[in-house]
Design a protein that fits this description.
heterodimer, A: 833 residues, alpha+beta, 6-stranded mixed beta barrel, 22 strands, elongated, B: 233 residues, alpha/beta, 6-stranded mixed beta sheet, 4-stranded antiparallel beta sheet, 10 strands, 33% helix
């Protein structure tokens, strides 16, 4: 770059650095970059934590996972190869402390666990933690901080796990193979495997998972793996550092995409403010550019000078934004604790590089069309000031910005199809919101048609530049929508969902009830006043063949179907279809029909590719049952009665002793139920739906807080669009206020008129936000929850009032100096320009 | 011409300094002037001589460094900005070189604006006044047009209608023909003079245009901040 360019650039920069345009530009870049960097730095650390952990993340070099305890021969074979082995079993159970009870994910480990990585515990919450080589000793338990808080227990307290009472020895703060806790509902209780039998938790039909861990030489592990694979075939489900990484990575990636999409909204809005201020800045430089051209500067020199000015502003703002984002990611870590088992590594500098690149590219992409006008300005403009420079076509102008946007979206989604859908979705949403803005503008205009001069002038100012008005109301509307979604819509939907359940809806599921316990449980229900007990049989079975062809989880892509294939299926027996099931294809069985039939839930069938007439071969212990799919049905899961993907007619599973699942309604005032249940039926797992819902709510709250954090940027970006518009129309406004003052308008009238303009703008934005929030609520209700989400008048009122007040305040503050300037000064300034 | 005995506008020893870097520039230097009701006064002078500054001070849009301005016997220099706005209400109209119409409002709404600012009459009555004012300047068929749809001459006629509609006793015009071609300029001059004749409105005009100056009762020239009368020169 030549000296001329640098010298002129520095001079222009010094002159313009305090101009409104560059200030808005810089602020917008700071908001966009801070938002993007805080999300990227945060997810970067998460990914780092997963990658760093390697084998530690699974507590071994290789894990064999199974719904049934792996045979001893497999473990012996591993030992024979010189490998270390360890076993653990996980199950879910309600655990009871003196003050409280809670559903826990119970993990019973042997003395060799973990083979890789370390455990960390602390005697009490808040005290420094220490490394432990092995798990709890017999007779004692460790609980994670969440469970300790739920149970309100301290070191030395007793916790009943099934039929056994154990002493709390420490708080478990780190467990190598825990994975992402954000996505696990039940908190952890760790105990010694030797105590497991005495708890009576493991009974046929109870939901337990078993893992056999091995570690040692790579060759030995590989050999053992291939031997087991030969022996077990498709039933061998291995987890290694590679398979665990991607699985965890997928969960994190999903979270990352979610957060990045929320960040994208702010970046887009800030982009609008950047585009507007850069465009205005370039327009104001037309005279200076013409002058430079008239004294001999080449087009290239002019372009380079202004590119340099914007580059420097973008660079400085991006650095400030990155720094802010860096501080901000710490806030996200606080908001979303326990995402990974390990400690998060220190943030790397990559997000800063990314943030600065994003900031500079965004400015250049959005400003370039305007800069190209400077590039092509005619030197004759110095003589004929009205000689403009032709504005390039919109498509040509914003092609670069559009390409950048697409790259950015694809970079976030890493999926071309999703990216295209997203882009189309964003475009369609913005177009819809723009239409809604126009509709509200029409309403506002006509509502106050005869309401006096302040109103008239205020509304006229609003309609002066319809395009800018729509951009502002849409941007601010998105901010308002975000606010409303997180407050009203969320609570409305939850309340609506809860209110449609009748008061005696079953709220506890009892899993693993033995046939011999059926009568005792009915008696127990009468004693505890539990009302109707809905029983259903439940038999665990593994799908081996479909139409005679062997199948395994490897045949399915990642997702629901694969997960279903990795675990045992639950088959239930029913003679009647029941009023919470609806037949949509095939026929339901009648008495005397063949018994080798199965009815499949429609979505499950579609995910696993089952069709009517298919023969599914399920293995239960040492028997294989060939069942023909004779019907497909939908299930109303919200009935909270036991329901199953796979149902067979009575007699289909001869020779198998099924377990039972039962659902009951426990009154909230019943304080003894759980204690008595655990005492009388230690093998039965109680799932408290209310407790699960509470834990789901807690998770939603965490996500909610993360979104609230991000939507602060959205609202800031919306306000920046407003500010950009105020700055770019400042001169017009100054002139008009000058005219109004010469015509006799008082400051009160002018303030009223400004208040009208901005409050109307805010009310329109509030209306757009309320519309978008209601629509989103309706869509979620309709398609995700099957609810009729109605218009909430309070939401609309809140949107309109909050929008009106927020924008009126912001608008009046940013235009205060216009009203304060003496009229002649206002007019002269404009005339002299 | 038969002048009223009292001046509608009186300036005494008006001086205006402005700072230019570390130096102080004198734009107006002890200017005194009386303008009587119903007369037409033109001020001419080269660019930068202080014509528009004088207009701004006389209209109370700006304050002098020293000296006094009396509008209908009331001292503008003693009032704050809102007080000066109050003093102008209904008494003073403006026509500018750049028309200074408000974008986003149509012709009728632009004319209604000062009426609504100063009058508590019902809207329908004000609308009638505005319509009559636009009809008087020949724009009866252009009332609903927004400013951007009007030609320069039409915009200046809207500005004149806006200035006259509240029936001010004094009208300030700053280069009213400056942005118009010769023919349109003539039309505007005729219109201003006709309204002066019909309604007896006092005109105070700052202009470069000798045609316009020659149509006024008195002409002043401003040079190096000093004002001297050159009527008939």
């Amino acid at each position: 770059m030549s000296n001329t360019v640098v010298r002129a650039g520095v001079r222009l920069l010094k002159r313009d650095i305090n101009s409104g345009d560059l200030r808005v530009l810089a602020l917008s870049v700071i908001v966009a970059v801070a938002c993007a960097v805080s999300v990227t730095a945060f997810t970067d650390r998460l990914r780092g934590a997963i990658e760093n952990s390697g084998s530690d993340a699974i507590g071994a070099d290789l894990v064999l996972a199974s719904s049934f305890p792996p045979e001893q021969a497999l473990e012996d074979a591993a030992r024979a190869l010189g490998l270390n082995t360890s076993r653990f079993t996980t199950t879910r159970s309600v655990v009871v402390a003196e003050k409280s009870t809670a559903l826990a994910s119970v993990k019973a480990v042997d003395a060799a666990y973990p083979l890789r990585g370390k455990l960390r515990t602390t005697p009490e919450l808040g005290e420094p933690d220490v490394e432990r080589d092995t798990g709890p000793s017999p007779g004692s338990v460790w609980v994670d901080p969440r469970l300790a808080a739920l149970l309100d227990v301290h070191r030395g307290d007793s916790i009943d796990v099934g039929a056994l009472s154990l002493k709390l020895e420490a708080i478990l703060v780190l467990e190598p193979d825990r994975g992402g806790q954000l996505f696990s509902i039940a908190p952890r209780l760790m105990m010694n495997r030797g105590d497991l039998a005495a708890t009576d938790l493991l009974q046929p039909g109870s939901l337990s998972r078993h893992r056999l861990l091995v570690s040692g030489s790579a060759d030995g592990v590989a050999r053992w793996r291939s031997d087991v694979k030969k022996q077990l075939g498709a039933a061998a489900n291995f987890i290694d550092a590679g398979s665990q990484g991607p699985r965890l990575g997928m969960a994190i990636e999903r979270g990352e995409r979610f957060l990045s999409l929320a960040a994208l909204i702010s970046v887009l809005l800030a982009g609008a403010a950047i585009a507007r201020s850069a465009q205005h800045y370039a327009e104001r430089q037309l005279d200076a550019a013409a002058l430079m051209r008239s004294v001999g500067a080449s087009r290239k020199t002019v372009l380079l000078i202004y590119l340099m000015v914007l580059f420097v502003v973008a660079l400085i703002a991006s650095l400030i934004g990155s720094l802010t984002g860096f501080v901000g990611q710490g806030a996200l870590v606080q908001i979303l604790p326990g995402l990974t088992a390990g400690e998060l590594p220190a943030p790397s500098l990559m997000p800063v590089v990314y943030g600065v690149t994003l900031g500079v590219l965004t400015v250049i992409a959005f400003a370039l069309p305007a800069l190209l006008r400077l590039h092509s300005v005619a030197p004759l403009r110095v003589l004929k000031r009205d000689l403009g420079s032709p504005a390039p076509g919109i498509i040509a102008s914003y092609a670069l910005a559009l390409i950048l946007l697409m790259v950015f979206i694809f970079w976030i989604t890493r999926d071309v199809r999703l990216g295209i859908w997203l882009l189309a979705g964003v475009a369609a949403t913005l177009a819809l919101l723009a239409l809604v803005s126009l509709f509200f503008l029409f309403c506002v205009k006509h509502l106050g048609r005869r309401s006096g001069v302040s109103w008239r002038y205020g509304i006229a100012s609003l309609t002066r530049n319809r395009g800018a008005m729509i951009a502002q109301t849409t941007a601010l509307g998105v901010g308002v929508m975000a606010m409303l979604l997180l407050t009203f819509v969320r609570t409305d939907l939850l309340e609506l969902w809860e209110s449609r359940l009748p008061p005696d809806t079953p709220n506890h599921f009892l899993l693993g009830v033995k046939p011999t316990q059926r009568d005792a449980l009915l008696e127990f229900a009468t004693r505890e006043k539990l009302g109707v007990v809905n029983f259903a049989t439940m038999t665990r079975a593994r799908l081996e063949q479909v139409n005679g062809q062997s199948v395994s989880s490897d045949d399915y892509p990642d997702g629901f179907a694969k997960r279903m294939m990795q675990r045992a299926a639950n088959l239930s027996v029913r003679s009647e279809i029941g009023n919470d099931n609806e037949l949509i294809a095939g026929t339901w069985w009648k008495e005397g029909d063949a018994q080798d039939q199965v009815s499949v839930e429609a979505d499950y069938a579609s995910d696993l590719g089952f069709k009517l007439g298919d023969v599914l071969s399920y293995r239960i212990a040492d028997q294989v049952f060939d069942l023909r799919v004779t019907s497909l049905r939908t299930v109303d899961w919200d009935s909270f009665k036991p329901n199953f993907f796979l149902v067979t007619p009575p007699g289909a599973l001869t020779g198998v002793t099924p377990g039972y699942i039962a659902s009951v309604h426990v009154d909230q005032s019943n304080a003894t139920y759980l204690r008595n249940l655990v005492r009388e039926f230690p093998n039965v797992t109680d799932i408290d739906v209310d407790a699960v819902l509470t834990q789901v709510r807690r998770l939603l709250d965490q996500l909610n807080r993360a979104l609230q954090y991000l939507f602060v940027f959205t609202i800031a970006a919306g306000l920046l669009v407003l500010y950009a518009s105020v700055v770019t129309t400042y001169r017009d406004r100054q002139r008009e206020v000058g005219i109004l003052k010469t015509l006799g308008a008082s400051r009160g009238q002018l303030n009223a008129s400004l208040a009208t303009e901005f409050a109307s703008l805010g009310v329109i934005a509030g209306g757009v936000g309320a519309f978008a929030a209601t629509l989103t609520g309706w869509l979620i209700g309709k398609f995700a929850l099957k609810l009729n989400y109605a218009i909430d008048p309070v939401l609309w009122l809140a949107g309109l009032v909050a929008g009106g007040l927020l924008v009126a305040a912001a608008g009046i503050v940013s235009t205060r100096s216009v009203v304060e300037t003496p009229p002649w000064a206002s007019l002269r300034k404009v005339i002299d320009q | 011409m038969d002048h009223s005995p009292t001046a509608i506008l009186r300036a005494r020893e008006l001086t205006k300094h402005v700072a230019s870097g570390e130096r102080q520039l004198t734009i107006l230097d002890h200017v005194s002037l009386d303008v009587f009701a119903g007369e037409t006064v033109a001020v001419v002078g080269v660019s930068g001589s202080g014509k528009s500054t004088l207009l701004g001070l006389l209209a109370g849009l700006d304050l002098p460094t020293s000296g006094e301005v009396m509008l209908s016997g009331e001292s503008l220099t003693q009032l704050d900005e809102d007080g000066r706005a109050q003093a102008r209400r209904g008494k003073v109209g403006f026509v500018f070189q750049n028309f200074q119409l408000l974008a986003g409002l149509n012709a009728l709404e632009n004319v209604l604006l000062p009426l609504e600012l100063v009058s508590s009459k019902p809207s329908s009555e004000l609308e009638d006044i505005a319509r009559n004012a636009l009809t008087a300047v020949g724009l009866a068929d252009r009332m609903q047009h927004t400013t951007s749809a009007l030609s320069g001459g039409e915009q200046q006629r809207v500005a004149i209608a806006r200035a006259y509609a509240p029936e001010p006793s004094l009208l300030f015009a700053d280069e009213p023909t400056g942005n118009l071609d010769q023919a349109t300029g003539e039309t505007v001059i005729d219109l201003l003079m006709k309204l002066n004749t019909d309604r007896g409105t006092t005109l105070f005009i700052v202009t470069h245009d000798p045609r316009l100056a020659s149509r006024c009762d008195r002409t002043f020239e401003i040079e190096a901040g000093r004002l001297k009368e050159v009527t008939g020169a």
